[in-house]
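# nightly structure sweep
# worker-07 picked up a monomer target from the shared queue
# config: single-sequence mode, recycle default, output format = structure tokens
# input follows
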Amino acid sequence: MTALTIQATRERVDIFRPGHRNPMLVQHAKADTRAYIHPIVAPDDNGQLTEDTPSHHPWQHGLYVGLNEVNGVGFWTEGLLAGREDTDGTFHPRPIANATAHDHTAKWTVTSDWRDPSGALILTETQTWTLTDQGATYYIDLAWSLTAALDIRFAAYAYGGLFLRMPYRKDGEGEAINNNGQVNTEAEGQRARWVSVSVPIEGRDDWAGIAILDHPDNPEHPTPWRVDGQLGIAPSRCIAGPWTLSKRETTTSNYRLLAFCGPTDPPRIHGNWSRFAQCRPAQSYDMDVD
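# output follows
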């Protein structure tokens, strides 16, 4: 394989395989909007594995992060849900940093300020991404950090955290499965090391999917998971109960996403999780907040 290339601006990163005009992944971080990744393209370059602003949940954007009830403020529905207009906070990405590509790996960092409805800073969030291309598959590592601008209580909630929205078909085709063998609604709210979703993809004769792997050093591992009615998935610490951060305290969680063609192969996914579990994760630390 030839080296990946990257095109980066203050608000966007496009990653390309050699000889391809269309990117395999695009990071969006437009000022004063939620940062998100879309599309993520299948490893054989045939079909998009993510969906942006679906009609059933217009605040969902491919692969993104959100939380609910952060000192009473919502960072999930972007003020688009009736009754949340005055209680939802806002996202303010800074210019994308450290966007580089070398051989089969690309890296970039997105830092965002999360503000309450009055404009006051609540959290500074940092997403540090690393994409590694393996040809038939590729994986994306995320070190996700939250630094508190003040003492914060995160309430218990049915969902929150890193969320993946794949294309959903009303005919119900597709499968979410975890390492315990629990499928679709059986996996909702259950603790698991990983959850994988595979669905029919437009333009393909077969399915394709993405698995999210939860690192064993993450808080609450094995984390409870959201698996919604349209097969959206999220490792959601908040399902386990409320948690807190003190002013200037940082918490960091690490995840790996594995993109693949075909239906989920549980032994293969679990083998990838076992290798990921041996990786040294980013550590929590204290830092100043602007």
